[in-house]
Automatic annotation (TrEMBL):
Transmembrane segments: 109-127, 139-157, 169-188, 240-262, 269-288, 308-327
Name of the protein described by the UniProt record: DUF368 domain-containing protein
Pfam families according to UniProt: VCA0040-like
Compositionally biased residues, Acidic residues: 1-13
Keywords: Membrane, Transmembrane, Transmembrane helix
Composition skew (Low complexity), residue ranges: 14-25
Keyword Nucleotide-binding set for record: no
Statement: the UniProt record of this protein carries the keyword Protease: no
Organism: Egicoccus halophilus
Length: 334
């Protein structure tokens, strides 16, 4: 009889639990299962509301659905379920159908479905507003996104457990390489192919399991943020299915790898991500925004726009810091 093989554990190759940020050894969390699934209508509604918050965050570059999950206390359950799902695909590919079936039933489907309903509801309701702002207020929207991303870099830096000169050099190198590399991109991809949308979806979905990194921000970097938002608003099934299929494949393929990297090289991974966000701020510079949010060209500020634009950027930056302070307060109380 085949045995269910967990996708991964929070141990270091069987050497026991890893230490937390303070050096204390803590036991690994239990695997996701039906015993902790929501059962009452109120619980389903609460999970759906959290999903709505995650969906709202995921469509705004700079915020992350993973951060919302962390603040609301469901992050570990989310990761456990994602890894269980990856385990199902792995077992199916190896032909272990009975084990795949048992792993499939161990997923908290009430929790997952409630969360997905909230996430998809937020995306459906807010995409039209964002599409309109992308067309009518690209400078102001770029400023808001810039402030959000720079604020997210501050939060990400606070998550580095033992900062060192090596981390600073790594972050600086990634930032410079990203900023220079974006100068050779064409900015917004007007008509992305289905294959490219699939690739973008597989990359952006990984941000869901990395607090502080926005999937929408990665779509901006890849030049498809506006086309994807437009497709959601227009209910265009072909690009949406391409992105969704890429997301499923990417989540299954990369969730275990990202988990392993964060367990083994936590600070180095965060330093690289911080460098990516800082360097990528180039595509969020509000001027000229000739082709909308994501234009890699850098121009001089327009004096007439400067007060409002600067105010929006600073306001967004402070909002992220306030959100981070709330997250720390919640974590301290739990």
């Amino acid at each position: 009889m085949d045995e269910v093989t967990p996708p991964d554990t929070d141990t270091d190759d069987g050497l026991g639990p890893l230490p937390d940020a303070d050096g204390n050894v803590v036991p690994p969390p239990p695997a996701a299962g039906d015993d902790t699934a929501p059962r009452r209508p109120f619980e389903f509604a609460a999970i759906g509301l959290i999903g709505f918050g995650m969906g709202s965050a995921d469509i705004v570059p700079g915020f992350s659905g993973g951060t919302v999950a962390l603040v609301t206390g469901i992050y570990q359950r989310l990761i456990d379920n994602v890894r269980q799902g990856a385990g199902v695909l792995s077992l199916l590919l190896r032909g272990k159908l009975p084990a795949a079936g048992r792993t499939f039933t161990s997923i908290e489907w009430g929790f997952v479905v409630s969360l997905l309903v909230g996430i998809l509801g937020a995306i459906a309701l807010l995409s039209a507003t964002l599409e309109r702002l992308l067309e009518q207020r690209p400078v102001q929207l770029s400023a808001v996104f810039l402030g959000l991303v720079l604020g997210a870099t501050v939060l990400a830096f606070r998550e580095i457990r033992a900062p060192s000169a090596m981390h600073a050099l790594l972050g600086l190198a990634v930032a410079v390489a990203t900023a220079v590399g974006l100068g050779f991109t064409a900015g917004v991809v007007a008509e992305p192919s289905v294959a490219y949308l699939f690739l973008c979806g597989s990359i952006a979905i990984c941000a869901m399991i990395l607090p502080g990194v926005s999937g929408s921000f990665l779509l901006v970097l890849l030049g498809v943020y506006q086309p994807v938002i437009g497709a959601v608003s227009a209910r265009d099934p072909v690009p949406l299915l391409a992105v969704a299929a890429g997301g499923v494949v990417g989540l299954a393929a990369f969730s275990t790898l990202l988990h392993w990297l964060l367990r083994r090289h936590h600070d180095a991974v965060l330093a690289g991500l911080i460098g990516l966000m800082v360097g990528s701020a180039r595509v969020l510079w509000p001027w000229p925004s000739a082709t909308g949010v994501g234009d890699p060209a850098i121009g001089a500020p327009v004096a007439a726009d400067l007060p409002l634009t600067a105010g929006l950027a600073v306001g967004a930056f402070l909002t992220v810091l306030l959100f981070g302070a709330l997250a720390r307060r919640v974590a301290a109380d739990t």
